[in-house]
Fold:
Amino acid sequence: MVILSVKPLFMILVVPLALLLAVALLSPPSPYSQSFLPSNSSLKPSIWTVRRIIGWRPCKWWQLGDLTVAELKSNGYIRVDCYGGLNQMRRDLCDGVGIARLLNATLVLPKFEVAAYWNESSGFADVFDVEYFIHQMNGFIKVVKELPSEIASQEPFQVDCSKRKGQFDYIESVLPSLLEHHYISITPAMSQRRDRYPQNAKAALCQACYNALRLTGSLEKKASELLEAIPKPFLSLHLRFEPDMVAYSQCQYSGLSSASIKAIEAAQGDRKPWTGELARIWRKRGKCPLTPNETAFILQSLSIPTNTNIYLAAGDGLMEIEGLTSVYTNVVTKSGLLTGEDFTSMHGNTKAALDYYVSINSDSYVATYFGNMDKMVAAMRVFKGLYKTLFLSRRAFADFTSQGLRGRDLMQALWKAHRDDYVLGRGSALPDCFCEVKL
Ligand SMILES: *[C@@H]1O[C@H](CO)[C@@H](O)[C@H](O)[C@H]1NC(C)=O
Ligand SMILES: *[C@@H]1O[C@H](CO)[C@@H](O)[C@H](O)[C@H]1NC(C)=O
Ligand SMILES: *[C@@H]1O[C@H](CO)[C@@H](O)[C@H](O)[C@H]1NC(C)=O
Ligand SMILES: *[C@@H]1O[C@H](CO)[C@@H](O)[C@H](O)[C@H]1NC(C)=O
Structure:
């Protein structure tokens, strides 16, 4: 029933829009109607030239700020503790700010703790501009850089919401600790519902997430150097086909190199891939990461010319990359463009920040997955008025190939599926802080 990672909101949208869409789609001729050239012919219009019906904007209700925050009596101090990858930490920061505002707390600068596999110690201030954050949060939530002396020496009381099971209420379960200890640290829980937050808490969350984070000066300098070095115009492609990703997906692939198979097996542990009917169902549900080869095929289906400049926003562990680079020949990576020692000594956290920066400034952005980075980048692109953003549909690809579609028929089906997503603005922004507009 549900296509892609479509939010319920979209389902409400889709029905009335289907009519509108039907009308709109009858008029422009199919790009394949005259000739079918799976190549870089500039005569054939790309997906980006299709007229969109729905677009996204940041909602007005949160941009205005919150006039009550200045007079609030604070219930205590909250530090948001964030773990994992850069974009996961950022997501937790957004949630944490919302919770702090919900509890009428004063925010202490967040703690960014980096996962062990990154082997580094990059904190919030190493990645994001602290002064800018404090300035931008003014009028949304109180933020302090320093704690008052009576609590400055103490460690915060830790409340790890991510360990709590099921739905719970932050006021009921966290406020008592805050009132008792005056200074707590929280790790937000992904599963908690935000829909019951008052508007001011949602506004603080949106502002923190999308309008208060800017890279530190030195990181931004490095990132803009990288941006400048990329041939223009360019597409930023977030490709996820790393051993841990593939192992985690429990999907089976045929035709992988023996090096890839070894790397996947090493990352697998006890998590063996599904086999037989289960594997088929799993794949049809869109659970399997797209290979670089499949990605190249879908990009061609979208009439994205094979001579397009592509920036690969990805880590070093990508497997089977020849599947892409044998078709799309103008692919650049950060490690190819930045070779100085300041780059080679950079770690995962800061490298991820470079990919993020380039991706929110690229002419177009295509993601093969719908992860934290993709959600963040899509939202920031909307914020900047960059609308050429698309999530490739693993589900559509699996669905069509399991129906036996191949070659030109498969390309045409993929074109239609992605065109509909693009026309309807599906997946280009997060509904929480963004509102759809008819174009
Ligand atoms: C397509 O790209 C190839 C190599 O990238 C080039 O040789 C060829 O001229 C291009 N064709 C068109 C129609 O642009
Ligand atoms: C936060 O402050 C507002 C306004 O004073 C009050 O209505 C609300 O109950 C407070 N919430 C908490 C959790 O203290
Ligand atoms: C982590 O960093 C230390 C010091 O830079 C280094 O000696 C060690 O080998 C690194 N560990 C990994 C797993 O990269
Ligand atoms: C993908 O791989 C298959 C099998 O190796 C090959 O036939 C096909 O041409 C490749 N497609 C692309 C787009 O590279």
Observations:
- The CA atoms of residues 80 and 110 lie 5 Å apart.
- The longest strand covers residues 106-112.
- Residues 69-214 form one domain.
- The pocket of 2-acetamido-2-deoxy-beta-D-glucopyranose (ligand 2) is lined by residues 72, 75, 103-104, 171, 175 (CB under 6 Å).
